[in-house]
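Fig. S4 source data, part A: sequence.
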Amino acid sequence: MKRPALLVPIMAVLASTAPAPAAAATAASDARGDQVADPLASPMWANHAAWLLGKAPVRFDPAVIVTMPDVTENQHVFPITVDARALAKVQRIVMLMDLNPLPVAIDYQPQGALPYVSLRIKLDQRTPVRALVLTADGVWHVGGRWIDAAGGGCSAPPVSRVKGDWAQHLGEMRGKLWREAADTRLRVSVRHPMDTGYVDNIAAYNIETMRVSGADGAALGTMTINGSVSEDPAFTLLLPPTQAGPVSIHMADSNGRTFDGRLAP
């Protein structure tokens, strides 16, 4: 297998702001305004639906395919893939872990990319893991299931902190862009401790935003990222088959540092 190219990071200062949560609502509802019962019977679903989704209609939809292991072998690095290509005009993909102290992992807007994302997250206990997918008609489509976890994914220090080498490698990016079947696949990772703030004497410190753009500078995907994404985060995105030119990746963390790289097929 061809080794991924090393992308040399460029450091700068960037101010970043997180989007404000939606207006509160008492319960999720369908397109007719009727209350929708959570098929996973989560004790936190109503609360999360209120601040994340507001009064928008919700549909628990098998078209949102959430793929993850049946067993959590490592609660610090849990792989998950969301495939919403069966839905038309997807605007956002939100990854939610109901019972995590940091419940939202990412908020992804696939502007020019396909509605697909793969990543690794932290799990702090047994919890529903869901993808919330917003389509252009204003409906949230929800898929996911319960997953068991031993706990401590958000409250133990990352490996790089224990080894003490995180500062020497901070911001190193690796990636690959290649054709697979009818799509173009992009995989990019960055060295970063992704501190949650739940470890004694270690403040929260994480990648906050990522922007992927094409050769013309137009956005292919924009992502807000939280500390519940695993250390040294890695993301796989699907781009349209027409995306043949170089791709640029821009990331910014919560300390104002930025990391940039460029990939060609």
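Fig. S4 source data, part B ends here. The first strand starts at residue 5 and ends at 7.
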